[in-house]
């Protein structure tokens, strides 16, 4: 296979490609938040039950409306489009705090173990969540009955100062930080995801979290842009193994959906990307169970359901077996019984295997760098618009 797992052989060329990918990604993005959206109410809030590690816990899940991800470079990520364009509509720290307060009024009596605070960006980036708002939220979390606070951030925003700030207020309660590594391959992260996360920044953030007795929740992709399903399987299995060797278990696998206003949507439109088959997800789970039996990966189910992602193309098999296959993956998430996956079969699997073979003989023979170069060549922006 021509797909190089780790190597960045030509860093200068890669840097130029990343510059162009970033321009393209940022140029396509559009905030979908309505002009008249309230700045003092969160985007959503609900109480439910989720798996934390291997335990089902009660959760309060809040999505705050905050300024867009400071990076916003990833080719597939829809989240920056679901945040505020603060250049057009600035938001004050007290408005962010007010969003939080509006759903934490009953927190003294409410019974939940886990408080999840999503921002569709980076909780530790001061430009997105001001320090005064973070401090305010830490204080209310400490007073609540919840034991765990889960937030998300790119690793470069996790600093010693930010960890001290959290520790000083929340004390012995646990902070969990969700961080997208996406892939353990340097080349894949660099040009097929175009993320700002590096292996170094990820490992440094993980070491800091451990030092403060906090926890990490690592996210990996199944099928980054420009990859074939075969390559996606190899990429995910190796990435799970890499995390496991670092000491990180329970990675969260996010199979790629094609969301609007992303570079990936453009690739998809041109017939250069298809969402992963569910068979590919099954194969990742089977192979990683054999290779890293104690890694315990889980798949994000909400990304696989069309009804939760009406504007997107979601990973799928054929119309007949998609729903039951997603249900089987969900059951596997809950009890880790491989039988749910082993017993799956349907005639579309033949088509899947044939398609993979064709892909291997065509796209699979072109080095990843060349695939991305060719795409960029086609979408070169006129200099004056840059
Ligand atoms: Zn089928």
TrEMBL record:
GO terms for molecular function: catalytic activity; iron-sulfur cluster binding. InterPro entries: Elp3/MiaA/NifB-like_rSAM (IPR006638), RaSEA (IPR005909), rSAM_sf (IPR058240). It comes from the Bacteria. Residues 59-287 form the Elp3/MiaA/NifB-like radical SAM core domain. This is Elp3/MiaA/NifB-like radical SAM core domain-containing protein. It comes from Candidatus Collierbacteria bacterium GW2011_GWA2_46_26.
